[in-house]
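**Discrete fold encoding**
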Amino acid sequence: MAEPPRPVREFHRNHNQIALLNENVRGGAEYSDIIRFLRNSRIGFAISENIHQVQAYIEDFWRSAQIVDGSIEATVSGSSIVITEAVIRAPLRFGDLDHGNTCYVRQIRERGVRSFGYVGSFTRKEIYKGLIIGQWRYFFHVLMQCLSARKSGTDTMGHDLLSAMIGLTYNQPFNFSLMILQAFLV
């Protein structure tokens, strides 16, 4: 028996902004290597493309969105739409597969975060941006601003986004589309 529909997280206008991946802006030269890496990565389009959005459509979507059997159903301008992992994957051009990790095991996460120069404890569920060095801190910040499911607080990163950072850095399979859908479904 299917579970009854339930509301989706609410929309926050200043949430999930695009990244200005340009090393020619003030302070950008210091992060030029990581900016070029992000721009050319499989998430480059999704985090930096400034698309035209119709505010009324966004408001319609969030006003009517319901979680139904692992997808999001909504009505926008009188038309029914269903958001699934595949629907997220296509326009954001992640290049991920319809399978794969959304969270690596603890040992891989710990090794990965240590390779980023992290000096903090790994006993908590989050890592702290201030304890990562240099360009890795900028990388962390961009992922938090562009892909995080949080409404506020961009100084700590959970295991899912840390796994995404590791997957990108080491060119390992990671299912960004599923990570985004799962953030809406919690």
Remarks:
- The CA atoms of residues 46 and 93 lie 7 Å apart.
- The chain has eight helices and six strands.
